[in-house]
Every structure is written in structure tokens, then in C-alpha cells.
Amino acid sequence: xxxxNIYPKSVNLLEGAKxxxxxxxxxxxxxCEGKPYFGGEEGKNVFELNHETANTLRSLFPxxxxxxxxxxxxxxxxxxxxxxxxxxxxxxFEKYDAMPVFAQQSIRELNLTxxxxxxxxxxxxxxxxxxxxxxxxxxxxxxxxxxxxxxxxLSLGFTMITLDLSDHIHADASGSYSQNVDDIYLGKTFDIExxxxxxxxxxxxxxxxxxxxxxxxAVKMYDMFLxxxxxxxxxxxxxDETGTxxxxxxxxxxxxxxxxxxVRFMTIAPRFIGEFQKGIDYIGDVNAFDGEMAVHAAIAxxxxxxxxxxxxxxxxxxxxxxxARTNQKYHVKTAGTNWLEAMKIVxxxxxxxxxxxxxxxxxxxxxxxxxxxxxxxxxxIPNLETLSDAELPKLFQNDxxxxxxxxxxxxxxxxxxxxxxxxxxxxxxxxxxxxxEEYAQALESHIGRHLETLxxxxx
Length: 459
Ligand SMILES: [Zn+2]
Hints:
Blueprint: E1 5-6, E2 12-14, E3 17-23, E4 28-34, E5 43-48, H1 51-60, E6 74-78, H2 86-95, E7 99-106, H3 107-113, H4 117-130, E8 138-144, H5 147-155, E9 160-164, H6 182-185, E10 189-192, E11 195-198, H7 201-225, E12 234-238, H8 248-260, E13 267-269, H9 286-303, E14 306-309, H10 319-325, E15 330-334, H11 336-349, H12 351-368, H13 399-407, H14 409-414, H15 425-434, H16 436-454
Parallel strand pairs: 6-7, 6-15, 7-8, 8-9, 9-12, 12-13, 13-14, 14-15
Antiparallel strand pairs: 1-3, 2-3, 3-4, 4-5, 10-11
Helix pairs in contact: 1-4, 2-16, 7-8, 8-9, 11-12, 11-13, 11-16
The protein binds zinc ion.
């Protein structure tokens, strides 16, 4: 325990005390010398990185607590499913002028990784302290659908809630809406920066039938948690997990109704045309996307919010359009690509472990498709027996191999042997700890490329 290495950037002085983090071999610890700010006695105290330590840290050093970020021109969510991506992510946002959301997980991701919101938030706070990143970061309770989940994230101090309305959207227009909005929309044409949005009787009935229940639910959740300042958090509305692209009339109607009903929201995530599949580039017509993006961005400007682009991992071919059409005002979320970079490091430095995991992922793929929509063709993935160790990292340039590893992350992390002992998780975390620098460099470059293609200015 005494034989640990201090992280130099983490050294902070507080009245009568020196607080810093150190590498204690198999884990990091927090050290407080001088006054017993974290408990213990006068002198030198060493603390495990648990929730209690994190809470104290956040109260003593406010830059380690999350802040609102959607109110800034550019914000980017970098979901760190494993709780190890902090050092690499921080290097990116030390360079680019965008506000990061380091803590960003959905309940689905928490379940699949066996983590908690406490853990997700704490890991962000500890890395921010360790690397002395003082510019601020956000915490997003992502894709939440239930009041108890919203309350869970808010009670921990998450600064952003992404409300997922997909369970309340009726693609067949079979839903109902509590409001009579004929006076506002019926027969009207709205000119949004030269784009005409028309509501005929049929169109208004259809849009109300598709989104009415979702709007009522959004208002209900807003009233329950945010309206009277019960909690202070930024509100994102997610309508992206639907079967068909969000039409301009739908985007306009949702934004217009939320605004009219007094819901203060910062972002809406529409479903764009083409395919935004996980962990690979955009599939579809980039020019058509650009045309749609221009309209979505115009609607957002009209109402004064930002467009949010979900499933933003690796969408390099459309990022220039996102950056340009929004006039550099956007929220973009990535998650899976950070996990893929972590697995690429495994393929590079521990080919035997990678081969074992890859073989397991092939058997688990079918089960994983219930969580994620992909069009993966496993036949396009080379048989690993035909690849040399040195060729394994190239698998991460193969879209089908990327998706195989991408969507099976939860099953890989939770796989146990007959005795109930983790098959990969423990070995993986030990590996990643030994290769922290390689992972940080990979993220710096790969997530950096996301910001660069978006056209994000440098700090
Ligand atoms: Zn989404």
C-alpha cells in the first residue's frame, strides 16, 4: 500500500491538507494528508474509490461534480460503459471546444454491464480529479423511460435527463392526445427558414395520433420532476428509437407542443433518414441526410433548442453535415465505439484472450440481437483460424466484426463458468489496467476524429 505512485496532476491543496490520487497497483486510491476531510484521523489517510469518497470529493472540489452542458453550443456524450475511458476522453476535451458528458448510461447499459449510476458518476468524478480536468462535465441519465429511473438519476445529481418516448409513440397513429390543437395547426403552413411545414386535416390527425400520448407523457414527467425546480436538470426529448425517420412536421409538432405546454427542454433527438447502426459509419445517402439535417436544424433554431444526434459512434460521413447545418450547435452521443476501442486494444496486445472472447461472441450474437437493431452478416467476418495474431486488430475495420463485438458487450462482461466465476470480466479489467496508456491514446485519436469531423473548433 505504501508503494504507490502519485498522479501528479491530481495534487490539490485544501486548507491544511493535500489531496491526491495514487496508483496502488491493482487499483487507484485517494489520499488525504493533513486534515481528515474524508474521515479518519489527523495525518495521512488512504481511501478506496467508493461512493462515499466520491461524494466528499464532489463537495470539496466542485469541478468534480457534474454541471449542465446542453446550454453550451457544443456538447458531446461519451458513454464510458466500462468506467475506464476517462483518461482518453479527458485528453480529447482538453483539445476541443465542446462540453463533455463523461457520465452517460441508459438503464439497458447499466443492466448489461452490471453497473450502477453511482458507479458511473463516481468514476467520472475520480478521473476528472485525477487528470485535473476543471472545465466541467455533464452526467446524463440516458434513454430513461420510467419515473423511478428518472428519480434515481436525479437524486444522485445527474445534470441531464434524456426522456425516451418510444413506448408512447404509436407509429400507426392509433394514440390520442389530451389537447385540442386545431386552432394552432389545422390548415396552417409554417415557414421555417424557407421550409414549409403544412398541417392538413389528415396530417394533423396523423401526427396527433402518433405523438399525442408521448407528449402527454413527456409533460407528466416534466411536471413530476422538473417543472417547479424540484430537481435542476437539463431535459432532452428522445424520439429516435422508432421504426421510421422523424418527418419535419412531426419534429415541429413535438417541439411546438412541448414549448406551448411550458416544458423547458434543451434538445430533441429525432430519428434521421438512413441507418444509424451501432458502432459503424452511416448507411444511406449522405446528400439526402444533409437535406434533412438542414430542416431539423432549422426547426431547432426556430424554437431555440439543439438537435441531438444519437448513435453517433463512428458516423464520420455525416458529421460534416451535422456540424455545418447546425452552425456548430449540437449535442452528439457516442457510447459503443469506446467499448470497441477497448476491445481493439485486447486484440492488439492479448490475441489469445481476444480469440477466446470472439469465439464466445459468435455463440452469443443471436441472444444479443434482442437488445440492439443491427443488420450484421456474420458470414462477412473472417474465420479467426485464418488470421495471424498480427491481423486480429484489422477485424475492427470490418463492420460486421465491429457489430458482433459491439452488441455482445453485456454478455461478454457477464459470462461466467460453471462455478459462477467471471469468464472474461476480471481478466479484461486487469488487462485494461495494464494497458491504460494504450487505451487512452486510442480514444484520444478515435474520439478526437469524431470532434474533428464535426468541425468542432479547438480550445
Ligand atoms: Zn437514442
